[in-house]
UniProtKB/TrEMBL annotation:
Residues 109-118 have a biased composition (Polar residues). Residues 100-121 are annotated as: Disordered. Residues 180-357 form the DUF155 domain. It comes from Callorhinchus milii. One of its GO terms (cellular component) is mitochondrion. One of its GO terms (biological process) is positive regulation of mitochondrial translation. This is Required for meiotic nuclear division protein 1-like protein.
Length: 403
């Protein structure tokens, strides 16, 4: 093996009398190393490099604290390793950066943008649904829209009390009338309305919203479905709504109302799904901390706030909406009920409600666990306070007896 100039100063130190015993130990270690006690190295060059590294390390450890040249020796060792291996093995590894999380897609069943029909092809029109707030003030909204030049449609039955129907002449295509349904629960559905008019109505609607949602979320979680006028009974076929052109205007409005009712439920459910995901993200660190045996730093008021958010969301989904059962409006209107049920089935509403209720149940169990944990912790603190008070009382009694 060729002599390496970096090792000459180190080998000179090994001739000192007080290190001869260490040199004999090194030779013994080398013999055991060659006999197979060191890790298996594939070629002779790697073996020599490994042995030199081991000898030099032991030498520096022996000289550390006795020689004034320890830092100089460490520098020599580092330069030697850099020249022998081509890289500095003492350098720390670069940290691995986590990959960026991809954004989740919308939960609504929007048609693919690439499959959207061109504005000037065939007779397809567009029906769009948005959920913009928790609730609308329909009475004030109606007066505001009428003063803006829109027409109220009063042909709906009396049992459709929580919806406002508005007509407009600003059409996207001339094949059908422009129609807008405002549901009191905070959703709006547009039928064959041009984009400019749609934006204008959305601006008017902002003044009558209660607990409005974020604009980006409203436009992300929307429903768009194509429809056209055709022969035969009205139905939902292959993701398109086919409306019967022989119907009277009143009957056509009722059928559009049935489709709109299902679309409004879908967009509202999408907003609630986003709210539940945000809630899950806010408590996802708690199970990991419990798993690692760490102390969960959360107050009793924060736990009660989380429980309140959870039950409010569960109340909206299961009690304040028509997600669990068919509305009473369709009980004596079988043809409209079929359209409503078919649209709900196409939008996977029942399956989505089942999934969100299962998530709510798991979140409820976790919040109950945290509440019980804090209750036990509070009870244990009270017990220790009682023990300390009893101890103080005993000490006072002993002091009174002794002194």
């Amino acid at each position: 093996m060729q002599k390496i100039p970096y090792l000459r100063p180190i080998l000179g130190f090994t001739q000192l009398p007080w290190i001869r015993l260490q040199r004999n130990n090194w030779r013994t270690g080398l013999r055991h190393t060659l006999e197979g006690q060191c890790p298996r190295i594939q070629d002779s060059r790697s073996t020599a490099r490994y042995l030199v590294q081991k000898q030099t390390t032991v030498c520096i450890q022996a000289l550390y604290g006795r020689s004034l040249h320890s830092l100089w020796l460490a520098d020599i060792m580092q330069r030697f390793y850099s020249s022998a291996t081509g890289s500095n093995i003492l350098a720390s590894k670069q940290p691995i950066l986590p990959a960026k999380r991809t954004l989740k897609g919308p939960r609504t069943k929007q048609p693919s943008r690439t499959n959207q029909p061109a504005p000037d092809t065939e007779d397809l029109m567009k029906c769009t649904a948005f959920a913009t707030a928790d609730e609308y003030q329909l009475e004030n909204l109606c007066h505001d829209l009428i003063s803006s030049g829109y027409n109220e449609i009063t042909d709906l039955p009396r049992d459709a009390a929580n919806v406002l129907a508005i007509g407009t002449d600003m059409l996207a295509k001339p094949d059908d009338h422009g129609l807008i349904f405002f549901f009191r629960e905070g959703s709006v559905v547009f039928w064959n309305v041009e984009d400019k008019t749609m934006k204008n109505i959305m601006r008017i609607l902002e003044r009558h919203e209660i607990q409005a949602y974020e604009v980006a979320l409203v436009h992300w979680e929307n429903e768009e479905i194509n429809y056209r006028i055709s022969e035969g009974h009205s139905k939902l076929h292959r993701g398109q709504i086919l409306l019967n052109f022989d119907l009277e205007p009143n009957e056509s409005i009722l059928e559009k109302f049935a489709f709109s009712n299902a679309l409004s439920l879908s967009v509202k459910l999408a907003i609630w799904e986003v709210s539940l995901d945000c809630f899950v993200n806010s408590i996802q660190s708690i199970p990991e901390m419990l798993k690692a045996g760490k102390r969960v730093k959360i107050s009793r008021s924060e736990v009660m706030q989380k429980i309140g958010e959870l039950f409010a969301l569960r109340h909206r989904i299961n009690l304040s909406s028509d997600l669990l059962m068919t509305p009473d409006f369709y009980w004596d209107r079988e043809n409209l009920e079929q359209l409503y049920d078919k649209t709900c089935q196409y939008l996977n509403i029942n399956r989505r409600v089942k999934v969100i209720n299962e998530k709510l149940q798991h979140c409820t169990e976790l919040t109950d666990l945290m509440r019980n944990h804090l209750s036990e912790k509070h009870g244990l603190r009270l017990e220790w306070m009682i023990v300390i008070l009893i101890t103080i009382e005993v000490l006072f009694e002993l002091g009174r007896v002794i002194f």
